[in-house]
Amino acid sequence: MNENRFRQLPAVDKLLSHETIEPLIAEFGRSRVAHWSRRSIDLLRGELVDGILHADRSELLVRAIELIVDQACEAGLDRLSPVVNATGVLLHTNLGRAPLADRAVEAVQAAARYTNLEMDLASGERRYRGYQLESLWRELTGCEAAFVVNNCAAATLLTLQAVARGKEVVVSRGQLIEIGGSYRLPDVFQESGAVLREVGTTNRVRLSDYESAIGPETAALLRVHASNYRVVGFTASVEIDELAPLAHRHGLLAIDDIGSGSVTDLSRIGLTGEPTVGHSLAAGADLVLFSGDKLLGGPQCGVVLGKAELIARLKRSPLARAFRIDKLTLAALQATLEIHLSGRAMEEIPLLRQLSMPQDELEQRARRFAQDMVQSRCPLQLSVEKGESAVGGGSLPTATLPTWLIALKAERISAESLARRLRTGNPPVLARIQADRVLLDFRTILPGQEPLLGQALLSVL
Ligand SMILES: *Cc1c(COP(=O)(O)O)cnc(C)c1O
């Protein structure tokens, strides 16, 4: 082996002072980039030993720099970072569901250091986490009490464990949902220690089915909202309005897992079929469960509202501590609830704004953006057209909203490849592909994100 060849390899110090590498040091820190440099040199040394690389000193330097930049790119892509959601799916679970309102973002920042998380400022005594939200929930929904945990899956498990462990809970066979990931209702029952008592069939269940399933072991009747699917055709279901009185006649609890958790009636913007928290409580549900990051438009969390005595049992469960929310979630949720109470939800909650954004505003935004791109000599072909967006996130599974799109095409580049470039670009842009074209949906591109999107498009080729 010719030892001289190894002396042609660049030294770490030389790599670190290279003009391409210096900005990486500023971004990732010297020791991390030095680590990548050593890995690059090792890799090149290995290739020299194997005889698969024949390069002189300057070529080796170029290769080493490339390898360091590749590692930096990989580290950058693996980072949690802001993206532009141009998919048209408003509640995209993979993209963090509901975007927070400005006031909620500010509240998160303000609470990030010391805060009165479990402290009563008036008395100086310890007070339970989440007390800050109790009166907000009461004012907003008319509930007696509230408890917030990490997500709705945790809320379901906690509820079943705390109020029905060792007892039976009656559920319709048409409502034994899988949400995705490992959340399947029968498995959640298993973990909770409550016994699942199935009634009805996949497509039909009657009140009498529930009634005949009630026995000495029954603790509750549970309704679960079919959030991410619809059973259509020859169907029958029992709503909470009938289920709650039946439960109460037999001295049982009525539990309503409504999933998407709207506190606003969305039928005034043309979206029907989603249960509201207020309706469920008024219909007599003893506990109502939902996610905070779906139609409420807040941070990830699971909310349980209902009877004070039951909520107290949830709080006493050993699982309560395991499922508790942190101060950042609490801050974002408090701000979100205050916006709902102020009557300005349609203007300030991004999700509701996007849901209700009028056609002509979407068209105007799409056309203006396309014009700007042409003026900036964007190398892509752009065409503005009508399309449809989806709500997503396990709500309104069959509803689509009319929207305006920009279709992108690039010469000699497939739609998949263009979408990949956008996804790994700066900032990352998530688009959707249809009929071999890349589509950008303006309903999910947040107002004010156009300059970022422009930057991404102009540097994509
Ligand atoms: C979304 C959903 C869940 C799960 O909620 P996460 O907050 O994602 O855990 C449970 N039940 C229903 C009906 C849902 O729609």
SS field, number of helical segments? 20
Q: Note the gap between the termini.
A: 43 Å
Structural class: alpha/beta
**Spatial sequence of strands, sheet with the most strands:** 3-11-10-9-8-4-7
What's the rounded overall pLDDT mean? 95
Determine the fraction of residues in helical runs and give it as a percent range. 40-55%
Low-confidence stretches: none
Q: Report the major sheet.
A: 7 strands, mixed
Would you report the number of β strands?
16
> DSSP strand (E) fraction?
15-25%
Shape: globular
**Which ligands, by name, code or SMILES, are bound?**
pyridoxal-5'-phosphate
Radius of gyration, Cα only, in angstroms? 27 Å
How would you characterize the overall build of this protein?
β8, α11 (240-249) and β9 form a beta-alpha-beta unit. The protein is α/β, with parallel strands linked by helices and 461 residues long. The protein is 43% helix and 19% strand. The radius of gyration is 27 Å and the shape is globular. The protein has helices spanning 3-7, 12-16, 22-28, 30-50, 57-77, 102-111, 131-141, 152-164, 185-192, 207-213, 240-249, 277-282, 308-316, 318-322, 327-342, 345-348, 350-356, 359-375, 415-423, 450-458; strands spanning 84-85, 89-91, 145-149, 168-172, 178-180, 183-184, 195-199, 218-224, 253-259, 287-291, 302-306, 381-392, 395-409, 429-430, 432-434, 437-441. The protein has 20 helices and 16 strands. The strands form four sheets. A seven-stranded mixed sheet has the order 3-11-10-9-8-4-7, with helices on both faces. Strands 2-12-13-16-15 form a five-stranded mixed sheet. It has a two-stranded parallel ribbon with strand order 1-14. α8 (152-164) packs across α9. Pyridoxal-5'-phosphate binds at residues 151-153, 179, 224-225, 227, 257, 259-260, 291, 302, 394. Pyridoxal-5'-phosphate is lined by residues 151-153, 179, 224-225, 227, 257, 259-260, 291, 302, 394.
